[in-house]
Design a protein that fits this description.
The chain is of the alpha+beta class and 734 residues long. The protein has 14 helices and 36 strands. It has an 8-stranded mixed sheet, with helices on both faces. Strands 1-2-3-4 form a 4-stranded antiparallel sheet. It is globular and about 70 Å long.
Length: 734
């Protein structure tokens, strides 16, 4: 036997053994004075990734696969939609989704507020605009620019809006991105605001992943994964082309080419306050390592002298502003800039010389801080900064070669999200929300450094008697992991509170307090508690918090969530009988690992649009792009670790598992639906309890319109009520 095969087998067995020998927590409703039965001999189902018997389920539109999916949906609908509570939950969720008093979030450009809106009558949506003056009133007068429902009907396509890219400063010609059914692959079509129509003979691309950027009114920079030659192994573009109006896309001029082993190459336009335009490109060598390129109009591409772990943010007053995710010493023997810092240098000077100018420090976050949204206005560079997962806003100014800052007053103890900055003016927008505080929308004056509340939503649920607390749990290595609990103030700490634990733990994504009307009405008002765990892998405390759980260190992420679950039971907030865990995408992998590693902690597991087969994930759709996060299954060491945590490869035929609810989307072309399909099929064969639902549209969001979103939420909360609230488990009646 080869070393890596031995390592895989040993690692898998060790992980399973470790899961089985974790000490039990003191749950409030555990049975006392009983002698546990001797565990059945473990029988892990061996699955060869090169000869997977369920590979037919990876055929997304395969006849046999779709027939199986339809049968699973019928089975799931029969139980969940057959529950007398389902229709009421659906009606509540739909009413919230379609409510007319939602905030019409918008961006301000070209003298107008632009907004995309969906409601009961416009399921595909309306792209519309209004003046700033009208927007600030309680009843703005909207001018509909494009009716996506009418377009979908006329063209017999299930168009899903993916955004607009309008050429500054006139904002009259736009490239609209439309997806058929919600997939990431989309078409781009040139649209005239004046004519309210697509431009006859204008720019139009075939359906593909990628994007386009304006160079000028007659030229685009285009990167599309339309052929193997122009695509990476992850399915994203590998080449950027200059495309002149009136010519065929096939005749476009190649500008910069990456490697097919890259994640992807993406060109973009950066414009400074004086109107200077720089065309640039990011060549994502891995998910976290990037080569940045400046693309002069009349010369070869020039690589920017940035560290590989860096992210360009914007231009402000001639300064290229960027973050670094690793320590960086740009000049040998010179200053070392710390991981997480926000830095800048003069872009015009670099463009003229090709040499790195003086690097300046904009801001260095503290150990419990992280950077959020940021962007340029005419008078300030605005940055949202979280402190211990609580939001703030800072305004930075640049003058005489120095950066300075002032704090912008914002509501306390809220999640702050910056929206819609534009260097042409000083109007920006900011959203503030909390678990129990409905969203409020503020207009920010970047010149005066003031904020004014202009819109808000009414309370969607009764928050009286509810409290939010931030607690900590000690992970297996001693790291303190913060988590939020939303519960009734009079909760009896006897372990009987139905509790939903949510986490993500990956890709430097921060999970912050948020207001959800459907969560409030469908779960909290019915007596449930809600928990968010800020585990490692996320970005809540900067790059180091994320990088602590990369690749073969990923078990730390899982240990963090296990620690939170055990702490909830130790405190008496809940117990395994009443505890469920929920996550989507990377979070679906997280909950899949919770299912196989610690099935004793939960009575319900929800794995949404998940990764679950970690030995074939890199061969499916965009999977290869995530090897910087998870590791390479074909590497002996990384592959051995991935086998040890892969949910699909760690199911015990004799195991005692909670019921798991798996849901995904046929149209998800980011995380392959085959992950959820194969896991469900395996559980079906082994006789383990599960439910499976696959929406036939909706992309990675698993919902293409408001009705589908409401159905998804109603199914979810019906399942959770059955498992965590009801005295009798529905499985007992089967």
């Amino acid at each position: 036997m080869k070393f890596y095969q031995t390592f895989w087998a040993i690692s898998a067995s060790a992980a399973i053994l470790a899961a089985c020998t974790q000490p039990a927590s003191n749950e409030g409703d555990q049975l006392a004075d009983t002698t546990p039965e001797a565990p059945a001999e473990r029988q892990i189902v061996e699955i060869d990734p090169n000869n997977d018997p369920r590979v037919w389920l990876e055929e997304v539109e395969g006849e046999q696969a779709i027939e199986w999916v339809e049968g699973q949906n019928e089975r799931t609908f029969a139980r969940l939609q057959g529950d007398e509570r389902y229709q009421g939950l659906y009606d509540q969720a739909l009413a919230i989704a379609q409510s007319e008093d939602r905030i019409p979030y918008g961006s301000y450009s070209g003298g107008y507020i632009w907004n995309f809106w969906q409601d009961a009558e416009h399921t595909h949506g309306l792209w519309r605009r209004t003046s700033l003056e009208s927007y600030l009133t309680d009843a703005p007068e909207w001018d509909v620019v494009l009716d996506l429902d009418a377009l979908s009907e006329a063209e017999d396509r299930n168009w899903v809006w993916r955004g607009s890219n309008c050429l500054a400063p006139a904002y009259e010609r736009c490239i609209l991105t439309l997806s058929d059914g919600g997939s990431d692959a989309a078409v781009r079509r040139e649209f005239s605001i004046t004519d309210r129509a697509f431009v006859d003979g204008g720019f139009e691309t075939p359906e593909a992943k990628g994007g386009v950027s304006w160079i000028d009114e007659n030229t685009l920079m285009v990167g599309l994964a339309t052929s193997p030659e122009d695509s990476t192994s992850s399915g994203y573009p590998s080449v950027a082309y200059r495309w002149e109006r009136g010519t065929d896309l096939a005749d476009a001029t190649e500008v910069v080419r990456g490697d097919q082993d890259d994640v992807g190459l993406f060109a973009f336009r950066a414009e400074d306050h004086d109107g200077t335009v720089y065309m640039m490109a990011s060549e994502a060598n891995t998910f976290y390592d990037t080569s940045w390129w400046y693309l002069p109009a009349d010369a070869d591409p020039v690589q920017l002298p940035l560290p590989s772990k860096s992210s360009i943010q914007d231009l402000y007053q001639g300064e290229l502003v960027f973050t670094i995710e690793e320590n960086w010493t740009p000049v040998e023997g010179g200053e070392t800039f710390p991981q997480g810092a926000l830095l800048s240098f003069n872009m015009a000077e670099f463009a003229a010389t090709g040499e790195l100018p003086d690097v300046r420090t904009v801001f260095v976050p503290g150990p419990r801080q992280s950077l959020g949204g940021m962007g340029s206005t005419a008078s300030a560079f605005l940055v949202a900064i979280d402190e211990n997962v609580v939001g703030g806003l800072e305004a930075f100014h640049f003058a005489d070669g120095q950066w300075s800052s002032e704090t912008v007053p914002v509501p306390a103890n809220m999640t702050i999200s910056l929206r819609g900055t534009d260097y042409h003016h000083d109007v920006a927008f900011m959203n503030a929300e909390g678990f129990l505080t409905p969203d409020s929308y503020f207009m920010v004056d970047a010149a005066e450094l003031t904020v004014e509340e202009i819109k808000s939503i009414p309370a969607r649920f009764d928050a009286e008697g509810l409290v939010v607390e931030q607690l900590e749990a000690a992970s297996s290595d001693g790291t303190m992991v913060p988590y939020f609990v939303v519960r009734r103030e009079d909760t009896v700490m006897d372990g009987t509170t139905p509790t939903l634990l949510y986490a993500y733990g990956g890709f430097q994504v921060s999970i912050r307090p948020s207001y959800s009307g459907s969560r409030g009405q469908l779960w909290l008002e019915n007596g449930g508690a809600y928990v968010v765990a800020n585990i490692r892998g996320g970005g809540e405390f900067g790059p180091a918090w994320h990088q602590a759980g990369l690749k073969m260190d990923r078990q730390r992420i899982y240990d963090d969530l296990i620690a939170v679950a055990e702490d909830l039971s130790t405190r008496g907030i809940t117990s395994p009988r009443h505890l469920g865990v929920y996550g989507g995408s990377n979070g679906g992998l997280l909950t899949g690992v919770m299912y196989t590693q610690r099935p004793d902690l939960w009575n319900a597991v929800v794995s949404a649009v998940p990764l679950l087969d970690m030995l074939r994930y890199h061969t499916l759709l965009a999977g290869a792009s995530w090897m910087g996060e998870y590791g390479n299954p074909e590497d002996p060491d990384e592959g051995g670790f991935l086998r040890s945590i892969s949910p699909y490869h760690n199911v015990d035929a004799n195991g005692d598992y909670p019921e798991i609810y798996l849901y995904t989307s046929t149209k998800d072309d980011r995380v392959h639906p085959g992950h959820a399909r194969k896991m469900a099929h395996l559980l079906e064969e082994l006789g383990h309890d599960y439910l499976y639902y696959e929406n036939m549209a909706g992309g990675h969001a698993a919902a293409a319109n408001l009705e589908e979103r409401a159905r998804s939420e109603a199914l979810l909360y019906t399942f959770l009520m059955q498992k965590l609230m009801d005295d009798t488990d529905p499985l007992d009646a089967e």
